[in-house]
Every structure is written in structure tokens, then in C-alpha cells.
């Protein structure tokens, strides 16, 4: 039978030192100790340990033969599954001796005589933790396990003298004190901020080390240096300043200030020490003046150049770069055959003549990673070495297989520490391209990244769990050669606590306190205990016992033992400290903070616990009364009315007769106190509309009903919902919402339902006194889950497949979500893309049956015509009546054998380029269409004219290697702008593919020899000139290509031609308009023709003057009146021109429809008249009108505002645009008209117009 973690506590009195402590309920006593066997829930090792420590206990340790006999006997009786049970036994890695173990809970080594191993060689097996393992014979023995992430049952253990820690209420420093302000509660110092190791990079004007502690009275702080009692104060050196806990050092110097510093905090309660921290200096030395010997590798072989030695106070702070003479920094991320190691060494996977030269190593101080504090100048110091000559010798071997060099895999920093960023480097000599890949001992998360062509694996914030064997592989796929190496990484760590000290508030007379701390670290840490900053050692009378990480205080004494305790853990990387205060309490019972409620309410047939929670120390004796009469409160759990060990009173199966006044009297050696409450017993609560089993589609909304009856006159009702036993939090879980009143009160909405919402829902109707509950199942239907076990298989007997086909197998999803699977979608991704594409859509289930397969859940399908030379990953999605399910996990990479290209290159063309060349372009084949390594192209060309005369004309050709899309071929300057036939044929290591062809690619143009003649410049208006010239034949002989356009160069009379501007006009033309000129000004202009190769020669320049300005004034007093059925008369006041303006030539009436804009306006030229007629107008149309004067200088300013008019009918108009004047018909009998020249309104009764306002 499984035992739950819920511990029902039995009677346990802790009054005075002479009292006997009993094990709580569910704990099993034996020889002065209590044991808890936890079947459910099972936990991983660390969680199991924390679960025990939460009650002040720890995982089991076996110290005697009789204890082992008790444990094995108990397990034989209760564990029918014969499982594995966690203990605190661990392998002792501090001794260096194989087969040594210790009990982590006590720190004691396991002696050889305690030999309860399942086999003699069991302790020599790999693994770390000791478990009790059951056997089919019923025996239990010790066994070793390595997987502590597996959930197992476990055994907790505690001394009977300390079981008070299991049930004792959480106490704080305010226990027994009547102080309202928490800041004024007396307490010893506790660190809020601790100083960190600090490194000064280069130089700094100041540095500070800071600590800060909480406590009352407010703590004072002291700094010491180099493990001495010498206190650091301004009196010691005026450069030192201490403000609260901050130590500031002005102008720090290595000789005077480097060392180990420690902060301590003190008040009247006690004192604590801070973790020692180191202040270091990192200065950059100088490179040697001795010139390094030249490096002389053979061509096409690997090479390495050592960076000369340079000193620094902190080697991890140096970063290296290399410079090639004269001023070219190396970029290994771009040139993948180069590599700069973190040790400063420069590597070449293969060298050529291009790499010859003089190289300089550049060293710079930087702030490395890690949990350290760095200060320094903003400009970090840098040094450059003497030049090192790299001279490449004669021809070496051709192709060289990859060889990973000695010293790799290399790790930086060389000894990684927890929290640092580390780099694992891998580098090989060999012919490019080299492809690097890694395998890691743990799954890669977001902390893992790769750089420099995968040659560097970076792990940020490295942990001890990252330790293990890492492997690197360097491969040349073209040569089908590779090399690999492995490295076992060991991450060490400065100690850090996984179990710190908690404050202890003990009753006076407590017999024993066992205090444990536990730290992780590598090397394994050494523990030291302190009290009030002083070293704590064993007492001669045995009352104080210190052993490793365990402190035992027996016969706790207030005067002797109160204070602040610290546990420190130290290894070669530093010290970590944790602190806790011990307080011994002596308090007369009182109900000041926790008075009993005046009245509580219970329900008939229900249970109730009446709380009695005084503050008292020592633990008091509880006496209960009902209506003044002492109750018989046995400790028997079967009693209907019983008292718990914490003093509370439990009443089961309540009746009306239990109603009354209950008094709780508490008494200890210091006095007594009494509280009371009235118990009212009410009728019970019942659910009358229970939730029903419900089906819902995924992403739809489901609703579950729930309504209950209760005593509304006295009680309040709330509804609580649980999902699979877990209470639903409506504030944080956006998928759930309560039902809305009045009809749906109490109900539950599940919105956008997901598959993980499927399960049991429980409605709990709860009042102050009782509750009722009802359950229902929610079933979520939708697309199926993911198929499992997708993998590709090799050739199978009876299957006909090609080299580009893959047989894929998978298992049907476990969850079909209410709909049978009908088909499958198979997706694929190549190693050249990061995008999934559909390879086979809606494959019928019948087409995936495996012939002769007895497992009907197994499926198979052949994916055909995959791309040769590509590696594929596959995934499968199942389809049912509700839609397409989620994809399966992706398969491993499957490489398709290479083949020659089959795709024709796209967009074969060209043209342009330098004179005397034929430029041929095409779209390079995408990587997945290259079908293998060694992509290149064979380019062929011949003159079109010769090929048309003789189809057998020989092709010229060249082979271009690489993933390129352009080639320029020299053909001679005389072959300018001739059409060529070209072919582009893709090729790889397996052969050539089909050609892409273009029969009309022109060679590059030459510079035109044409010069424009017959150039004439005429004035156009005040700001423009028009330039004309004779036509130029667009022939190959004259243009030496294709005429692209003309350029007009122009400049003012008082300027030089060199400062002239040009206007460009594309296309073949005979004139051009030059605009943006100054009025009444002389300009020079010349013309040249250009093609795509460049400009021709300029024509002679010609001079012309622009007109004076157009009229600046605009006509005013514009009036419109009816004239005829389709015409109006316009009258206006004209303008006069001034001396800087051209002579007036006339006026234009410019009008346009309201539905158009002014760019589509029409003009009526009235010459020099001050009126004119506009004919051809339409009714039901709104017109705009503006009047302007014109001259040789161009059109003048237009009248303003715009006049709006209509011949009548119905028009739509927005009156917010302008004011409107309405005019009736004139004496001539013409149509009615209105205009917008003013805001005068008149009667509309005579209008033949219906106006609709928007």
C-alpha cells in the first residue's frame, strides 16, 4: 500500500529538557531515531534530499548492523515491488581511492565492516549513489546507481531528540515580541551583498570592494587584509575610504594593495564574516625584441606561427589578433583556412604563395567572462610583436587528408570553472574545404554555440554537469577522408551552497540541534564552522560537536549557544559562507498575535479543526473545555473528538450537540493563557446540477455546468474547480474562465481548448463549514498527435527503389484525438535550407501498409526523386477527419548519393562589361541542385553570324570552378557589340549536366565616335531653353554599341564650362528642354551622345538668353455669368507687366471639372481681352475656374481663390471647401448659375438647380 507524504502528526510534548520525544505519525521509530519511508510521490535524488531536509531530517545513513537489519526488514514487509530506495550514500571523490563511500547527510566515511553490498564487486561499478535494491528473493542490499535523475522512493531519517523540527510552527525573530515595525525587530547580521573577487585591468583611478548586511541594531563593518587581524582603515593609508560596508581605494597599486580582503559585520546580537575576496592586477608586459625565426612550410601543407611570449598578471585577460604587413588584420571567419587560437597561435590548414608575408601578433587586455568584478581604463592596453616571416617553399603534395593537430581539442580557459564562458577549439591541417562537426556528452541548449566554421564550440555559463567527453570530427567530403579526436572536459567550481543554514528559534531546554550545510565544488570543499566570527571547535564535554558539514549542539543553553553561526566551504578556487542565527526562547503563553476566532461555523456530518495557536516557549500543555467542562481528548486517531500534537482540536462527523463554546487553556513553566470560540453547526451543502462528460474540438470552447444548494441566510458559497486534482488559478491561466451569472454561475469555460486540457474536472462547492464536489471528463477531439519512431531504412528485399529514393518508416501516433488516421504528409529539409517542404502530400493510409508486418501501427513509404548529393531530414504528419496533426520528431540526416547535375542553369544572358570582353551571366545552381561537390561550369561561346552561316562553327570554351554566376571573356576590342551564342553547362565531380543557352548575348560596347552637329539653342520661357540637333544614326559603326541617350551640358555666361551642369535624356531624340534656369540670363550649351560604355565627344557650345519673367500679378475680380445653354461668360480685371517681365501677350481662362484636377484643365485664349466665352459645358457638372496672364516668359500667376460654377441640375458639393454665392437667371433667359466668389446667399425659389450637400 502506497504511503502519502501528508504526515499526520501524533502527540509530541517538548516542554522541558526531561521530556521524551515521540516519532510523528507515519514515521517509524527504532533505537532513538525516526524513519519516513516515502513511496509516493517518488523524487529524483536532489528533490528527495530537499524533501527530507524541509522537515529538519535528511536522507538515510546506516551506522550500525542493527540499523541495516531494521531497514531491510521493514522494506521486505511494505515494498511489494522490490524497488530501489535513495539513501544519502555517495562515492567519496576526495580521497582519490576507488571504492570509498561516505554518508552525505553526516559526512562520515562508510567503514569497511559495514558491507551490505549486493555483490562483492558492486562498489567498483560506475556510478555515484548508494540505493537499497530489492531482489526477487525479498532481500535488500546496497547497489550503485549513476542516474540520479530517475525518480525513486526514498527514506528520511531524524533523531528522536530533534523531531520537534517536524511539527514546530515556522518561527521568526518576532516570535513572542510585540513589535509592529519589522525593521526594529532585534536580529543578528545577515549578508545582503558580499564582495567579489576583483581584477584591475590595466590602470584605474579607483576600485571599491563592497559588502552590506541586514540586522538590528544596524551592523557596523570592518575590513581586514591577508588573513591578518590588521584592520584596513584610512589611518592605515589615506587612499583608503570606508563608507558603511564599501571599501574604496584611490589610485590602487599592485605592490601596496593586491591581496585577500575580508569584510565582517557586527551588532549586539552577533557578528559574521564575509567570504574572502582577492584584489588582483592584470598588466600587459612587452613582447621580446628578439626576432622570431621564419616559418617555412611547403605549399599546400599546414602551418602554424607562435605568438611570442608576453607577460600579464592575469593570463585569461589577454586576447590575440594577427596583422599581416602592411595593415591587414586576419579574418578567420571569412578565410576559413586560417585560425587564431585563444592561446595566440596562428594556424593555416593549408598555405599558398598568397599567404607569404610578415605577420605581427597583437595582444590586448580585455575583461574575460566569469562571476568576477573588472575595473580598468576605457582604452585597454595593447602590444604588437616583432614581425614573423612566413615563407612558402616549393610545390608540396596535391590533396592532403585532414589531420587534427596535436594539442587539439584545446580548451580555454585551460581549467574551466563553473559560471565561465569556455571555448573548445578543434583544428586540422588538410586540403580545403574542411567540414567540422561536434558530439557532446549532454544535450546542447541555448548556452552552446559554434563559430569560425564550427572549429570553436563555445559554452556560456558552464556548469559541472557539462563535464564529459567531447569529440570533434574534421572531414573533406570530396576526398572522403576525415579525422577525429576526443577530449574529456572536467569543469571545476568554487564552492557554492545547495543547502544553506536557516535561522533556528528553539525552546529553552531543547536537548539537541543538528545543523547541516552542504556545498558543491570541485575540488571537493573543506568545511569550517564559526560562531560570531570565531572558529568553532568541539567542546570537551561533548555538547558541541563539529564534523565536516555537520554541527551538533546538545543541551542547548541560552547564555552559551545564542549567536550567529556560519558554515564555510573552501577549495582551491575560494571560500563560500552561509550563516544562520540561533535564538533560545523562553516565553509565557499568550494569544496576542493569534487570538481565537469569536465564532466558527461547521456543517452537520462534516469535520472541523479548532485552532489554538498561542506563542509559548517551552512548548505548553493544552487543555480543552466545552461550555466550561473539560473535554476528554484522547490521542487515538479513531476518536471522534481528539487533540492533535500541535494542540489543535479535531471534531469528526459533527452533530448539533457539538455546538457550543470551546475554550483552550495553554500552560508552561512560565504561566498560562486561555482563549475561546463559539462553534455553530449548520446544514450541509449539496451540488444539484453536476458537470457532465463533454466532448469538444481542439481550439474551441467547452462549458461545464455546476450549481449547488446551501444555507444562504448564514453562509457564503464559492465554487472551486480542479483539473486532474490541481486547483485552477483563474488569474494566471488564460484558458479558464468562470461561468457568468445568473444562468451559468458556478460553471467553467475552457477557451481555445488544447489536448492537454483533456482529463477530469472537479467542481467543489464550498462554504465556510463544508463542501460538496462532482466530477466530469472532458474529451478533446482534433487532429492526431505526432507519429513516433520516424527513420529511414536501407534497401529492403522486394522493394524497387532508385539511388535517389528513400524508404521511410514510422509508427502511428498514440493519440488520434477522436478521428481515425486517413492519410499522411511527409516533409523534408535539406542540409542547404532551413525550410520544410512537402515531399509527399496526403499519402493514403492504405499506401503505407508494410506487407507481412504483424504490427498494424507500423507504416512505410518510399520517397522518390530526391536531390542527389543532398542530406535530408524527414518528418511525418498524420491526417484525420479533423485536420493535419503536429509533425513528428525529425529523423537523422540521410545523404543521397551524388550524381551529375540535371538542372539547366536559369537566366543565361549577359552583356555589358569592359570594352573588348564578352560578359556571360547565369543564375548559379542552388546548392541542393548541384548534386555533389566540385560545382563548376563549362562556358561556350561563338559569334552568332558565323553560327548562322555555318552551324558547325567551332565553340570557344573555358571551365570555371566554383559556385559562380558570371564570367567575362576577353575577345578583342574589334569585336565590340556583336551578338554571340553562349552555353553554360553545369558540372561537378560526377560529370556534366544539360546546358543553358542564349543565342543573342552581345559583347561589350565601345565608346561612341558620333558628335552631334546642327546644334541650335532657342529660348523657351523665363526658366527654360530648348536645344535641338541633327539626328544621329543608331548604328554599330557610329555608336560602337547601342545609343543610350544624350547629355546637354550648360553653364551661365559668367561661369566656366568646368562648373557647368548636365541634363541627361535617355533614348534617341533630336531636342531637349533645359529647365530651372534664371530669367533674362545668357547660357552656353553643348550636346554629347552616350552609350553603355561611356560618353562620346561634345559638340561645339552655343549661346542663348532666357526670356524675362512671366507676369507676376494675377487677374482679379473674376465673375461668371450665364451666356448660352452650354456656355458662360467670364469677366475679370486684367494685369500690367513690369520692366523685368516680358510684354503681355494675352489671357487664358483655365477650367476643369470638379472630378478632375488642374493638370487636366483646358484653356480658352482670350488674347488681350478682359472677358471671354467658355463653350461646350455640361449640365449637372461642377467646374473650377482660374484666370492667368501669359507672355514669352510663360504663364503668369493664376487668379485666386478658385471660382466654382455649374450650368444647373443636381451636383454634390462639400460646403466646407469654399463659400458659395447663388445667382438667379439673367435677363437674357440663360440658365441659373452659382459661384463661389463670396458668401452672399439669396432665395433658392427661382433656381433651376437642386443642390445636395455632402
Automatic annotation (TrEMBL):
Annotated PROSITE patterns: C_TYPE_LECTIN_2, FN3, IG_LIKE
Signal peptide, first to last residue: 1-18
The Ig-like domain, residue ranges: 182-280, 288-373, 402-488, 495-583, 589-680, 685-779
Domain Fibronectin type-III: 783-899, 904-1006, 1011-1109, 1114-1209
GO cellular component: axon; plasma membrane
Keyword ATP-binding attributed: no
CDD domains given in the database record: CLECT (cd00037), FN3 (cd00063), Ig (cd00096)
C-type lectin domain span: 30-157
Protein name, per record: Contactin
UniProt organism field: Potamilus streckersoni
Amino acid at each position: 500500500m502506497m504511503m502519502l507524504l501528508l504526515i499526520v502528526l501524533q502527540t509530541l510534548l517538548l516542554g522541558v529538557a526531561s521530556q521524551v520525544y515521540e516519532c510523528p505519525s507515519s514515521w517509524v521509530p527504532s533505537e532513538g531515531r525516526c524513519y519516513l519511508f516515502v513511496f509516493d510521490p517518488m523524487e529524483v535524488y536532489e528533490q528527495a534530499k530537499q524533501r527530507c531536509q524541509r522537515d529538519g531530517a535528511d536522507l538515510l545513513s546506516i551506522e550500525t548492523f542493527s540499523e541495516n537489519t531494521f531497514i531491510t526488514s521493514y522494506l521486505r514487509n511494505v515494498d511489494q515491488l522490490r524497488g530501489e530506495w535513495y539513501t544519502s550514500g555517495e562515492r567519496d571523490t576526495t580521497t582519490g581511492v576507488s571504492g570509498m563511500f561516505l554518508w552525505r547527510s553526516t559526512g562520515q566515511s562508510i567503514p569497511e565492516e559495514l558491507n551490505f553490498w549486493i555483490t562483492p564487486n558492486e562498489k567498483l561499478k560506475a556510478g555515484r549513489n548508494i540505493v537499497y535494491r530489492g531482489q526477487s528473493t525479498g532481500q535488500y542490499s546496497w547497489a550503485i546507481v549513476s542516474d540520479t535523475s530517475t525518480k525513486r522512493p526514498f527514506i528520511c531519517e531524524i533523531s528522536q531528540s530533534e523531531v520537534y523540527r517536524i511539527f514546530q510552527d515556522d518561527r521568526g525573530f518576532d516570535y513572542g515580541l510585540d513589535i509592529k515595525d519589522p525593521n526594529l525587530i532585534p536580529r543578528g547580521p545577515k549578508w545582503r551583498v558580499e564582495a567579489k573577487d576583483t581584477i584591475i585591468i590595466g590602470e584605474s583611478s579607483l576600485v571599491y570592494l563592497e559588502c552590506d548586511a541586514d540586522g538590528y541594531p544596524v551592523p557596523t563593518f570592518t575590513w581586514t587584509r591577508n588573513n591578518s587581524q590588521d584592520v584596513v582603515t584610512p589611518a592605515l593609508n589615506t587612499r583608503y575610504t570606508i563608507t558603511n560596508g564599501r571599501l574604496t581605494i584611490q589610485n590602487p597599486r599592485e605592490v601596496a594593495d593586491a591581496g585577500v580582503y575580508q569584510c565582517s559585520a557586527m551588532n549586539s546580537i552577533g557578528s559574521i564574516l564575509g567570504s574572502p575576496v582577492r584584489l588582483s592586477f592584470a598588466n600587459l608586459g612587452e613582447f621580446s625584441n628578439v626576432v622570431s625565426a621564419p616559418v617555412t612550410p611547403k605549399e599546400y601543407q599546414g602551418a602554424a606561427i607562435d605568438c611570442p611570449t608576453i607577460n600579464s598578471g592575469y593570463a585569461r585577460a589577454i586576447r590575440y589578433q594577427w596583422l599581416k604587413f602592411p595593415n591587414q588584420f586576419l579574418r578567420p571567419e571569412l578565410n576559413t583556412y586560417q585560425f587564431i587560437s585563444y592561446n595566440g597561435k596562428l594556424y593555416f590548414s593549408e598555405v599558398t604563395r598568397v599567404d607569404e608575408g610578415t605577420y605581427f601578433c597583437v595582444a590586448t587586455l580585455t575583461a574575460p567572462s566569469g562571476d568576477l568584478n573588472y575595473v580598468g581604463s576605457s582604452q585597454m592596453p595593447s602590444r604588437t610583436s616583432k614581425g614573423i616571416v612566413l615563407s612558402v617553399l616549393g610545390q608540396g603534395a596535391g590533396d592532403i587528408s585532414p589531420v587534427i593537430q596535436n594539442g587539439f581539442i584545446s580548451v580555454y580557459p585551460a581549467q574551466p570553472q563553473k559560471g565561465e564562458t569556455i571555448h573548445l577549439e578543434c583544428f586540422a591541417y588538410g586540403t580545403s574545404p574542411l567540414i567540422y562537426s561536434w558530439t557532446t556528452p549532454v544535450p546542447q541548449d541555448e548556452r552552446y554555440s559554434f563559430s569560425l566554421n564550427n572549429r570553436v564550440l563555445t559554452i556560456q555559463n558552464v556548469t559541472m554537469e557539462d563535464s564529459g567527453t567531447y569529440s570533434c570530427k574534421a572531414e573533406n567530403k570530396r576526398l572522403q577522408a576525415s579525422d577525429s579526436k576526443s577530449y574529456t572536459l572536467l569543469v571545476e567550481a568554487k564552492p557554492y551552497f545547495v543547502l544553506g543554514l536557516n535561522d533556528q528559534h528553539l525552546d529553552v531546554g531543547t536537548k539537541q540541534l543538528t545543523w547541516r550545510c552542504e556545498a558543491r565544488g570541485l575540488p571537493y570543499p573543506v568545511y569550517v564552522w564559526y560562531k560570531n566570527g570565531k572558529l568553532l571547535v568541539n567542546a570537551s564535554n561533548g555538547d558541541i560537536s563539529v564534523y565536516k558539514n555537520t554541527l551538533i549542539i546538545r543541551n542547548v543553553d541560552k547564555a552559551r549557544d545564542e549567536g550567529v553561526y556560519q558554515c564555510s566551504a573552501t577549495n582551491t578556487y575560494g571560500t563560500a559562507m552561509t550563516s544562520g542565527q540561533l535564538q533560545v526562547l523562553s516565553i509565557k503563553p499568550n494569544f496576542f498575535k493569534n487570538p481565537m476566532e469569536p465564532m466558527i461555523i461547521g456543517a452537520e456530518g462534516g469535520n472541523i479543526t479548532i485552532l489554538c495557536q498561542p506563542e509559548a516557549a517551552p512548548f505548553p500543555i493544552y487543555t480543552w473545555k466545552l461550555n466550561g467542562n473539560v473535554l476528554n481528548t484522547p490521542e487515538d486517531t479513531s476518536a471522534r473528538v481528539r487533540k492533535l500534537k500541535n494542540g489543535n482540536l479535531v471534531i469528526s462527523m459533527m452533530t448539533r450537540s457539538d455546538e457550543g463554546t470551546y475554550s483552550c487553556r495553554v500552560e508552561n513553566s512560565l504561566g498560562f493563557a486561555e482563549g475561546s470560540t463559539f462553534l455553530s453547526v449548520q446544514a450541509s451543502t449539496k451540488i444539484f446540477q453536476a458537470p457532465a462528460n463533454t466532448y469538444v474540438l481542439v481550439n474551441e470552447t467547452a462549458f461545464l455546468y455546476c450549481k449547488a444548494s446551501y444555507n444562504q441566510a448564514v453562509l457564503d458559497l464559492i465554487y472551486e474547480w480542479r483539473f486532474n486534482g490541481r486547483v485552477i488559478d483563474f488569474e494566471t491561466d488564460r484558458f479558464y474562465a468562470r461561468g457568468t451569472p445568473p444562468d451559468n454561475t458556478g460553471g467553467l469555460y475552457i477557451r481555445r481548448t488544447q489536448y492537454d486540457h483533456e482529463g477530469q474536472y472537479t467542481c467543489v462547492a464550498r462554504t465556510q463549514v463544508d463542501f460538496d464536489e462532482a466530477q466530469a471528463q472532458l474529451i478533446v477531439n482534433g487532429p492526431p498527435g505526432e507519429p513516433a519512431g520516424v527513420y529511414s531504412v536501407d534497401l529492403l528485399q522486394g522493394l524497387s527503389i532508385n539511388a535517389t529514393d528513400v524508404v521511410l518508416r514510422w509508427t502511428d501516433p498514440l493519440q488520434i484525438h477522436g478521428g481515425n488516421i486517413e492519410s499522411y504528409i511527409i516533409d523534408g529539409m535539406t542540409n542547404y535550407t532551413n525550410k520544410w517542404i512537402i515531399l509527399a502530400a496526403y499519402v493514403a493510409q492504405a499506401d503505407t501498409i508494410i506487407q507481412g508486418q504483424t504490427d498494424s501501427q507500423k507504416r512505410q513509404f518510399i520517397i522518390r526523386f530526391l536531390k542527389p548529393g543532398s542530406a535530408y531530414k524527414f518528418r511525418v504528419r498524420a491526417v484525420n477527419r479533423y485536420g493535419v496533426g503536429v509533425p513528428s520528431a525529425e529523423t537523422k540526416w540521410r545523404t543521397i548519393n551524388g550524381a551529375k547535375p540535371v538542372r539547366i542553369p536559369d537566366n543565361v544572358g549577359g552583356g555589358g562589361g569592359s570594352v573588348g570582353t564578352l560578359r556571360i551571366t547565369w543564375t548559379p545552381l542552388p546548392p541542393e541542385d548541384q548534386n555533389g561537390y566540385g560545382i563548376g561550369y563549362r562556358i561556350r561561346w561563338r559569334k552568332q553570324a558565323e553560327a548562322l552561316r555555318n552551324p558547325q562553327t567551332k565553340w570557344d570554351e573555358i571551365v570555371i570552378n566554383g559556385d559562380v554566376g558570371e564570367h567575362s571573356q576577353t575577345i578583342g576590342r574589334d569585336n565590340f557589340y556583336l551578338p554571340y551564342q553562349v552555353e553554360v553547362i553545369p558540372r561537378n565531380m560526377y560529370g556534366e549536366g544539360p546546358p543553358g543557352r542564349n543565342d543573342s548575348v552581345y559583347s561589350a560596347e565601345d565608346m561612341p565616335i558620333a558628335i552631334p552637329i546642327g546644334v541650335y539653342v532657342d529660348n523657351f520661357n523665363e526658366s527654360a531653353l530648348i536645344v535641338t540637333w541633327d539626328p544621329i544614326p543608331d548604328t554599330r559603326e557610329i555608336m560602337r554599341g547601342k545609343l543610350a541617350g544624350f547629355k546637354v551640358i550648360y553653364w551661365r555666361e559668367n561661369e566656366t564650362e568646368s562648373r557647368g551642369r548636365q541634363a541627361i535624356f535617355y533614348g534617341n531624340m533630336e531636342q531637349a528642354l533645359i529647365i530651372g534656369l534664371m530669367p533674362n540670363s545668357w547660357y552656353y550649351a553643348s550636346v554629347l551622345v552616350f552609350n553603355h560604355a561611356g560618353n562620346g565627344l561634345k559638340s561645339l557650345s552655343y549661346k542663348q538668353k532666357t526670356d524675362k519673367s512671366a507676369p507676376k500679378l494675377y487677374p482679379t475680380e473674376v465673375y461668371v455669368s450665364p451666356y448660352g445653354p452650354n456656355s458662360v461668360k467670364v469677366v475679370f480685371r486684367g494685369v500690367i507687366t513690369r520692366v523685368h517681365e516680358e510684354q503681355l501677350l494675352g489671357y487664358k481662362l483655365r477650367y476643369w471639372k470638379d472630378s478632375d484636377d488642374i493638370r487636366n484643365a483646358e484653356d480658352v485664349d482670350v488674347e488681350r481681352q478682359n472677358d471671354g466665352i467658355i463653350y461646350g459645358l455640361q449640365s449637372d457638372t461642377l467646374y473650377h475656374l482660374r484666370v492667368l496672364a501669359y507672355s514669352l516668359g510663360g504663364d503668369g500667376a493664376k487668379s485666386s481663390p478658385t471660382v466654382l460654377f455649374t450650368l444647373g441640375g443636381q451636383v454634390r458639393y462639400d460646403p466646407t471647401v469654399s463659400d458659395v454665392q447663388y445667382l438667379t437667371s439673367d435677363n437674357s433667359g440663360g440658365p441659373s448659375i452659382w459661384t463661389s466668389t463670396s458668401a452672399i446667399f439669396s432665395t433658392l425659389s427661382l433656381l433651376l438647380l437642386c443642390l445636395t450637400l455632402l
